[in-house]
Amino acid sequence: MSKPTVAIIGASTDRKKFGNKSVRAHAAQGFDVYPVNPKGGEIEGFSVYQNLRDVPVQRLSRVSLYIPPMVGLSLLEEIAAKGCDELWLNPGSDSEELVAKAHELGLEPIVACSIVDVGINPHELNDPE
Amino acid sequence: MNTLTSIILTIACSLLLAVSRAQADVYELKDGGQITGALIDRGGNGEYVVETADGATVTLTRKQVRRIVAQDERYLEYVKLNRSLPDTAATHRKMIDWCKKAKLHQLADHHRRRLLELEPNDEQARVSLGFQRHHGHWLTQDEIMVERGLVRFDGAYRTTQDIALRENEKEQEIEETDWLRKIRRWRGWLDNRRSTEAAQMISETNDPHAAPALVKILGNERDQQVRDLLIETLAPLRHPLAPTTMVDLSLNDPDREVRLQCLGHLIRYHQPISLVPYVKVLKHRDNEMVNRAAEALQEIGNAEAISPLIDALVTSHKYKNGDAPPGDMNASFSRDGNGGGGLSMGGSQKIHKIDQRNLEVRRALVELSGGQDFEYNSRAWRRWYINQQVHEYVDARRDK
Per the count of CB atoms within 10 A, which of B123, B173, B335, B369 is most buried? Predict the structure, then answer.
């Protein structure tokens, strides 16, 4: 059985940020992780894709957003074009408008923390002081 | 026989004799009945003239018709076909294929559901109906999400906590809207013979949900007596808008009495008071605002304001030609050596940068320091302040 796949949009190199914790959490739980950030580079040893189109998977198991709702809104068509089973709108990335537009595009929005969903408490991912 | 099959057979009976036309529609009536037939004419007032399958002509007014559901040949064909088939798994599989080809997707799903009643493990039917295998069981996506603690609500899957918050917010919105309606009505009464009753109703309001309504009406109110009543009512409410509005008015209301009144309410009802908004205003480009903030800090009486007040004893402000307040021009040069002066901007328009001594800042410092007064000498104030800190530090260690 193939591994589930996830694109983390708004992935971050900063280990304090949820966009980084999500990369680590999904990887720890057996996902193939594709961090997406226009800056590119590398996060936690994974190559960063500058946009979702470049992610080398035809359809993703999930897309998890760590960006402001207005930015998310502008990316929805790209996400719909790529295709995903679940669209995770993490706390702070959701809005009524975003949820409605996601529906229009046939996406299945989930307004909750995708890190918690994979069974990890985000606080467990804090580095020791 | 399930409900859908009964409906289909009912429709089929009405069509049984002859359906020679390519297009028949179902006219659903407001009284609950329905007539199936083809539209052959429209009356002068928009009536529908419908010819039924048995050749009868019926005229229906627009008021009688709830809605018109278009039927097409494929559907009629389906009705005929389905009526004669036995209720077996094999038949339903055939009907699923037939419906898919005829693009009658809802009916295909109907046959899938019946097929699953007969053969619960038909994988193709399960998958087509959105079931997924989950820990050895067939579950719908909603059922799987529930297992993961997520429930569909307001167009998305959400946690139960999020749903509870949203429901709570909606309830609050309803209550707040209700208060807005009530207070608006009472405000209207204040201008007529019911004014005493209205004033009493407003002043007796103690539900925190009324706060947004009071703030909204206060924002548009010009009558000072009414404003006072609204402020008095809002001030004690346990709602975040009460202290924030009091802070805002204590700094920005043009009437000093109102500013002090709001400050008094803050001190009475909303301790501890955050100094942050007042300290920020000590750096305001408008000198009057600096002094308002200082006066408020004096009233609040928290010694933590001393350090930022020392920094605001003398502040620089820019004035266009002739706009500088009279008398303050001489205050450009402070005793502690902080220089001030004018500078030219462009040709005719001159901007003057003037250092101003802030009387209210000094008064606040005298009050908060317990009677010290180094006038506008901020270095002397700072020296005294640091000494105070050292004393406190030493005292604290002795106590140990």
Answer: B369
Residues of B in contact with A110 (CB under 8 A): 145, 150, 156-158
- CATH architecture observed for domain B3-132: Roll (2.30)
**A33-62: pLDDT as tens digits:** 999 999 999 999 999 999 999 999 999 999
Give the best residue of A95, A108, A110 to mutate against chain B (max B CB count within 10 A): A110
Q: What is the ipTM of this complex?
A: 0.81
Please write the tens of the pLDDT for every residue from B7-18: 544 444 444 333
Q: Kindly write down the DSSP assignment for every residue of B59-95, as one continuous string.
A: EE-TTTEEEEEEE-HHHHHHHHHHHTS---HHHHHHH
CB contact (8 A) between residue B156 and residue A100: no
Residue of B141, B145, B158 for testing the chain A interface, max A β-carbons within 10 Å = B158
Is the Cβ of B155 closer than 8 Å to some Cβ of chain A? yes
Query: What would the DSSP string read from start to end of B170-200?
Result: HHHHHHHHHHHHHHHHHHHHTTSTTHHHHHH
